[in-house]
Predict the structure.
Amino acid sequence: MFKFAIVVFGLLGLSLFLIGCVYLSLNEFMPYHAEALQVGWTDLNPNYRGLILGLIRGLGGGAFVAGFAILFMVGVSVRKSPQPYLVLLPFVGIGYSTFLCYATYTVYTSTPGNPPLLLIVVHIALGVVASIALALSQRHKSGTHSFGQD
């Protein structure tokens, strides 16, 4: 159960990290952003372009940091003990994914854009499943835990 939880948290962390990398590297908005605004990037006022890039990079920075933090905690949990991260892994994984889902849902319901809402819902589901598996694996263990024990 522990291995399963760690693998799922690793997938969630990697996905958030990669989303962060993509959003931090953008120099214009994504196609669904154009759908949402019903205007092309070059048609936007430069002030709006700067604002939108700032917002995109803010979300991307959050995803990058959350993904990196999850991957770091997974790495330490594999080598040592998950004990320090039993609350932080679920909190960061589910917490950031929930805020990202809220932002994505807002775009989905308030604009004609078609953001990747299903992907973000999958992130939340991964976080919940991994959190339950981690809690169950710790419930059956006492003392220190290493990756090879399950």
